[in-house]
Amino acid sequence: MDYASIKEELVDIFEDVMDADDVELTDETTANDVEEWDSLSHVRLIIAIERQYGIKFSNAEIEGLKKFGDIITLIQTKAG
After folding, report:
1. CATH of the domain at 60
2. Would you state the torsion angle of the CA atoms of residues 77, 63, 11, 30, taken in this order, to the nearest 10 degrees?
3. What is the model's pLDDT at position 53?
4. Where are its TM segments located (predicted)?
5. What is the pLDDT of residue 80?
6. Calpha distance 72→56 (Å, rounded)
7. Alpha-carbon gap, residue 47 to 56, rounded angstroms
8. Which of 12, 18, 41, 68 is in the most buried spot, having the most CB atoms within 10 Å?
9. Of 53, 45, 55, 58, the residue nearest 11 (C-alpha)
């Protein structure tokens, strides 16, 4: 899967999990930039991503996810 396709799907997943339609997501967006993106919603986001793509993230990988773009890159790596 290419980066743009993953990003488009991930925006939909993000908006669904966060229940926020008006968030402008860039590769540099962090949890500090989105009011709804707290620790609980982050866990829900990770679970939704794992289900969508049939992948599993390690704890170390999850801890390394700081920006929206990091998530896309990791999905691209894991989903091949």
Report:
1. 1.10.1200.10
2. -130
3. 96
4. none
5. 75
6. 14
7. 9
8. 68
9. 45
27's enclosing H/E stretch is none
Distance CA 11, CA 25 (A): 7
**Number of domains forming the structure of the chain:** 1
In degrees and rounded to multiples of 5, residue 67 shows phi and psi of -125, 160
Smallest CA-to-CA distance from 17 within 1, 31, 32, 3 is with 31
Query: What is the extent of the structural domain holding 59?
Result: 3-79
- 14-17 CB contacts, 8 Å cutoff, 24+ apart: 14/45, 14/68, 16/48, 17/41, 17/44, 17/45, 17/48
